Amino acid sequence: MSDHHDLVVPEATEEPIANPGLPEHLPRPTDVDPVAEKRAERQVATLFGLSALFAILTCVAYFAVGKYDAFLGLGASNVALGSGLGLALLSIGAGLIQWSRKLMSDHEIVEMRHPASSSEEERSEAVAAFEQGLEDSGIARRPLIRNSLLGAMGALGLPAIVFLRDLGPLPGDKLQHTVWKKGMRVVQDVDGARIRPSDMQIGQLVNAEPEVFFETNSEGEPVIEGTELLQEKAKAAVILVRMHPDDIKPWKGRENWGVDGILCFSKICTHVGCPISLWEQQTHHLLCPCHQSTFDLADNGKVIFGPAGRHLPQLPLAVDDQGYLVATSDFTEPVGPSYWERG
Amino acid sequence: MSTSITTNGTKSATVAKGNKAGDAATWADERLGLAKANKLMSLRKVFPDHWSFMLGEIALWSFVILLLTGVFLTLWFKPSMGEVSYQGSYDQLRGIQMSEAYASTLHISFDVRAGLLMRQMHHWAAMLFIAAMLVHMMRTFLTGAFRKPRELNWVIGGLLLLLGILEGFAGYSLPDDLLSGTGLRIADGLVKATPVLGSYMSFFMFGGEFPGDVIIPRLYIAHVLLIPGLLLALIGAHMLLLVYHKHTQWPGPGRTENNVVGEPLMPIYMAKAGGFFFMVFGVVALMGGLMTINPVWRFGPYNPAEVTAGSQPDWYMGIAEGLLRIMPGWETHIFGITMSWNIFLPGQIGPIALFAIVLAYPFLEQWITGDKSEHHLLQRPRNAPTRTAFLAAMITLYGLLWAAGGNDILATQFHVSLNAITYFMRGAIFVVPVIAFILAKRWCISLQRHDNDKLLHGYETGIIMRSPEGGYSERHLPIADARAYKLTARERDEVYQGVNGTDANGVDAPNARVDGLRARLSRAWFATNVQKPTVAELEEGHHHAEAELEYEHAAGLDHQADGHQYDGRHDVAGDDLTHKH
Ligand code: HEM
Ligand code: FES
């Protein structure tokens, strides 16, 4: 056998203590004592018997325990089925393990190892076969064939990628716009109730949505529903907060975006898009429950803590001729998580 | 085996006559040549035993449980985002608009008997699956079982962990409840942060704008077919390699690099491992029956404008969550583009880098140590101090990030400011792992010293002897042969010296620099390790003990006061203190 085929064994001479060899096999009580053996046999059979019993009890419970009954605050049926099945399985398991430990022969066996590699002969045989194959194909002598084949295989990858094109539409400018537009009423998110400035106390936060989510067409069908509703909601959800007008420090150009200290901000976190809802009225801080980005709503929604990289977009507000809060335009910047071409 | 099968081609093969099982075996072998398979993997294949070898088994069995319970769930689950008005038996949600996926999950939970049990078992088994893989991986790491020739099996294991986590995330998303939808929303944000392609990737993934109506069906097919298929194939490869390499074993009397000592697959391991399967299954069934997990009915259907406070992903997503949470909000806006480092680094680069390190580890270590030989005997963690310390650092990092992933919960539980926790974590993830590394390494080395003390001077009996002069000393006794052998059954570490250790002329500069780095790393890796005693050192230790004994005789003791009489460790008849060679 060749050199590499032998395992590297440390030289015996440098070992401070020689390997004393396998210890002698000691018999277990069940090997020498017929009473112990019988007892173990009975134990194993009892466990198997118990398992069958539990399996049957589980089936009984399936029919006997009411679907809607409760037990310790949990579903009674669930508790009964889980316990029954669990005990049936555990008994089989315990029986098998007990059998193997107490009654099956426990003589240790020695098996020799062999290196993972093939022998030198096997290797040269394989290499020879491979080279003969290469030689017969003539691929080395005909680079034209080889290269054109590689090119063809590579080109086949293109349809594989192109065919995936219809996984979804292109983003276009969808991420830059929401359904908000001039004159759209800001309404309560629960019932679509319109909101007058006087409905809001100082310090109050209201979860709000554009009124179009609650509008129906002439046939009584919602204007926006289903998937589209979820998609628009994921961008257009807002919060209204009312603060002391003196506390608010609007950026230039935003001075008239509020109504009597009522400001409207996107509810969608600029970090990775969770809806934000935890409002501290004393500090005017809004905290995102997902990764705790904190925004100062008195200061234009600026990030004051956490992993978000951008302020919360603000929706400019006004009051319409009936006295309800309305948007004066769409958001002036994309809402939600950042993306490359967002600017 | 008692039956021996022979085939000579003309006569039909015969086993013991009149034996039903034998007849069946013959029938099958004549058509399939099954007995040949016994050569590839003998029914009497030997497996060594140790409790830590069970961890991988837990992972395997949880996977089987996931397959079984998962198939049960598919019989009722509807992977559809079509909207329906819920009319099932859970009062609080009746009449509410929701996706069919969510409605069918409620149906499984409330109206299918054993449905909730299977859902909960499926979820508990998923957690167990990933936890077991992780701990199994740590065991493999700590004992050096990933060394040649098993590096590829380590890589397969790493891929299994990665796929397991992805599979878990896909499954967690399927019920389309408020929490799982929030998880998807975060995934959407992570994808959008990809440079250049982010928004396109998001639109292709969700079939349009988030949340769209295709993500649940797409995740479903990944969850029940694609990823389980890959997992199954990789688990198969993992097992094949395990059989081919044969299991590693701990060193001990009679166990060498060239053999494997243990009990045979049939019947011992069939019974033990089979029994263990039922135990794991049974425990999971009890958990599913008694411990509520992911009560989706409490969260309500997904609504992109709602979220619950204190929402937490499954535990195995914890470190990704922690990374996201403690990252400062860095974003670059330049030339009309946005680069979100705050998401890209922790959400994409971080996990990829972590996995790359894990997968590459065996090769990195091999390069540093220059060790090219096969290893079938396991190492005690203390005997690879740098590696063990590295794992200690990684576990510390993992723990810190995991805690950071629950910083809001920590803040409310311990009344600490959230901001303080976050700032602390930002520094701690760089500092504390280093401290853990240093401590773990020192600890390993002191354990190594302790081992050598035991070899050279024996163990401490706790028996105090008074000499005739009135001095006190503790009696040390030699340890038993088998234990002494075990302690020395390890290799001596060799620091890599570099090819050009003495003359730098022969090698060109860039190579020499790499080589120098390698030599320096090797020194850092090994230099402080304690090596086992040499033959000479050991002998000197024993002479010392004998001298002590003679001194006692000279002092007039009429019997050997070797202390065995008092500590009761073994029978001392005919024992003297000299070591048996
Ligand atoms: C191999 C690893 C697997 C993992 C880690 C895993 C994990 C999960 C998780 C965490 C859930 C959420 C359960 C919940 O509602 O609380 C889930 C749901 C589900 N899984 Fe799996 N699963 C695995 C394999 C499978 C397989 C092989 C199948 C089917 C062949 C399957 C079918 C399902 C179905 C239908 C659901 C949705 C049912 C529901 O949520 O009620 N899973 N999975
Ligand atoms: S989504 Fe708001 S902080 Fe991450």
Automatic annotation (TrEMBL), chain A:
Membrane topology: Multi-pass membrane protein
Cell compartment(s), UniProt: Cell membrane
Keywords (A to Z) from UniProt: 2Fe-2S, Cell membrane, Disulfide bond, Electron transport, Iron, Iron-sulfur, Membrane, Metal-binding, Oxidoreductase, Respiratory chain, Transmembrane, Transmembrane helix, Transport
Cofactors named for this entry: [2Fe-2S] cluster
Entry GO MF terms: 2 iron, 2 sulfur cluster binding; metal ion binding; monooxygenase activity; oxidoreductase activity, acting on paired donors, with incorporation or reduction of molecular oxygen
Keyword Iron: yes
Transmembrane segments: 44-65, 71-97
Chain ranges of the Rieske domain: 257-326
Main location: membrane
Presence of the UniProt keyword Endoplasmic reticulum in the record: no
Regions annotated as coiled coil: none
GO CC entries: plasma membrane
InterPro entries on file: QcrA_N, Rieske_2Fe-2S, Rieske_2Fe-2S_sf, Rieske_Fe-S_prot, Rieske_Fe-S_prot_C
Span list, region Disordered: 1-30
PANTHER family: CYTOCHROME B-C1 COMPLEX SUBUNIT RIESKE, MITOCHONDRIAL (PTHR10134)
Role, per record: Iron-sulfur subunit of the cytochrome bc1 complex, an essential component of the respiratory electron transport chain required for ATP synthesis. The bc1 complex catalyzes the oxidation of menaquinol and the reduction of cytochrome c in the respiratory chain. The bc1 complex operates through a Q-cycle mechanism that couples electron transfer to generation of the proton gradient that drives ATP synthesis.
Family listed: Belongs to the Rieske iron-sulfur protein family.
Stated name of the protein: Cytochrome bc1 complex Rieske iron-sulfur subunit
Source organism (scientific name): Nocardioides pocheonensis
TrEMBL record, chain B:
Listed transmembrane segments: 58-77, 123-142, 154-174, 220-244, 276-297, 343-364, 384-403, 423-440
Any one of the GO CC terms: plasma membrane
Region (Disordered), start-end ranges: 561-581
Taxon lineage: Bacteria, Bacillati, Actinomycetota, Actinomycetes, Propionibacteriales
Protein keywords: Cell membrane, Electron transport, Heme, Iron, Membrane, Metal-binding, Respiratory chain, Translocase, Transmembrane, Transmembrane helix, Transport
GO MF: metal ion binding; oxidoreductase activity; quinol-cytochrome-c reductase activity
Pfam families hit by this protein: Cytochrom_B_N_2
Location of the protein in the cell: Cell membrane
GO biological process: respiratory electron transport chain
EC number: 7.1.1.8
Domain Cytochrome b/b6 N-terminal region profile: start-end pairs: 24-251
Reported cofactor(s): heme
The keyword DNA repair is annotated on this UniProt entry: no
Membrane topology: Multi-pass membrane protein
Xref: PROSITE patterns: CYTB_NTER
Catalytic activity, reaction form: a quinol + 2 Fe(III)-[cytochrome c](out) = a quinone + 2 Fe(II)-[cytochrome c](out) + 2 H(+)(out)
Protein name: Cytochrome bc1 complex cytochrome b subunit
